[in-house]
Amino acid sequence: MTEHQVPARKPARPHFSSGPCAKPPGWSPDKLKTDSLGRSHRSKLGKARLQLCIDLMREVLQVPDTHRIGIVPASDTGAVEMAMWSLLGARPVTTLAWESFGAGWVTDAVKQLKIDPTVMEAPYGELPDLGAVDWSNDVVFTWNGTTSGVRVPNADWIAADRDGLAIADATSAVFAQDIDWNKVDVLTFSWQKVLGGEGAHGVLILGPRAVERLESYTPEWPLPKVFRLTKAGKLIEGVFTGATINTPSMLAVEDAIFALEWAKSVGGLEGMKARANANAAALGKIVEERAWLGHLCADPATRSNTSVCLTVEGADTDFIKKFAGLLEAENAAYDIAGYRDAPAGLRIWCGATVDTADIEALGPWLDWAWAALNS
């Protein structure tokens, strides 16, 4: 391919954003069920659709009956902060950060809750020493660093006999990576990531140890209404059976139901993981074949298979902006510039709602943009 020769084939769906992510293949708004729209979420129908959404999440994610699943406000951020504000303060806390969202939870713990946590940090592309985590503490961490492309390799580092709670922001890990539910007391995510769902709603999954903490501990600080999970010292069970704390978008719920039913159609959790792994492998081949591309995460064992972050030889923020802009103008790739707080580079979503053929078709377009900017 010469410097300015435009590739013959474009990705059929050039949606590579890391959130909101690509819709499931075959999605269109006219495929969503609409009977619940314009109805109260407290109606029999509304509650049934919310419960179905919860049931499908449990089925696809293989969440055990010991864990409760709730739909909560404010996306994954709301779910994480609900957990932190409601649960922390009973014992010492450790916060782990190796990218911007983990750093945000550190800020919450240090500056907002003022609980003086132990902070374990690592630069973008790396992990802190997981073996040094003190599990007598409550521990807050991101399972998959969406803005760095670095994930924990597994749950082996989480102590089975821990005294503290394991609180995991897993918004770009669920439906793509293995979660050991025996090692997780709190897990959060949002539909807008690996399901390709709509934003504004989060999912909060509580294990029995987290429920026990909620029912035996009252934080020193006041809790906003949208954070309250207990009443008179008991868990508000309705939150986990579809009686949401605030009014949900039933359109977003129907969209999530569509995505979950699609997930079942491709083989459920194993099918979703296989699709993400195939996408990440296809992108890895593209990187391997180009000397000017690299992985921000050098260790394959901790490299994300969803939010894959790439380095570009000699690139600064302005170069990346132009690079991504060229591809967007050609409708060849949308939203692939790295996160604003991350080192300058590309970030390409490889979750299951992306088709591997589109990742493969992206390679020549990366060459084209690189050649155009270096000619």
From TrEMBL:
BP terms from Gene Ontology: glycine biosynthetic process, by transamination of glyoxylate; L-serine biosynthetic process; pyridoxine biosynthetic process
Superkingdom field: Bacteria
SUPFAM superfamilies noted in UniProt: PLP-dependent transferases
EC number: 2.6.1.52
InterPro entries recorded: Aminotrans_V_dom, Pser_aminoTfrase, Pser_aminoTfrase_methanosarc, PyrdxlP-dep_Trfase, PyrdxlP-dep_Trfase_major, PyrdxlP-dep_Trfase_small
PANTHER family: ALANINE--GLYOXYLATE AMINOTRANSFERASE, AMINOTRANSFERASE CLASS V
Full protein name: phosphoserine transaminase
Organism: Altererythrobacter lutimaris
